[in-house]
Design goal:
Distance between the termini: 22 Å
Largest sheet: none
Number of strands: 0
Order of helices and strands: HHH
Shape: elongated
Helix content: over 70%
Structural class: mainly alpha
Length: 56
């Protein structure tokens, strides 16, 4: 996955997080930030299924 795509997804997610936290009145933005960071890390580390099937 190209780095630009990951960064675009990250910034879109940050924007969504800001909007949702404002609507929900959540007091813990750090929870959403940690969740978003974990999601971006998982998406950045993903591999194609075809690539993995050749290893097995």
């Amino acid at each position: 996955m190209p780095w630009a795509t990951v960064m675009r997804a990250f910034f879109c997610s940050v924007a969504a997080m800001v909007v949702m936290s404002g609507l929900a009145g959540c007091t813990s933005i750090s929870y959403y930030a940690q969740s978003l960071k974990g999601h971006v890390e998982i998406m950045a580390a993903r591999q194609d299924v075809e690539e993995l099937s050749t290893i097995l």
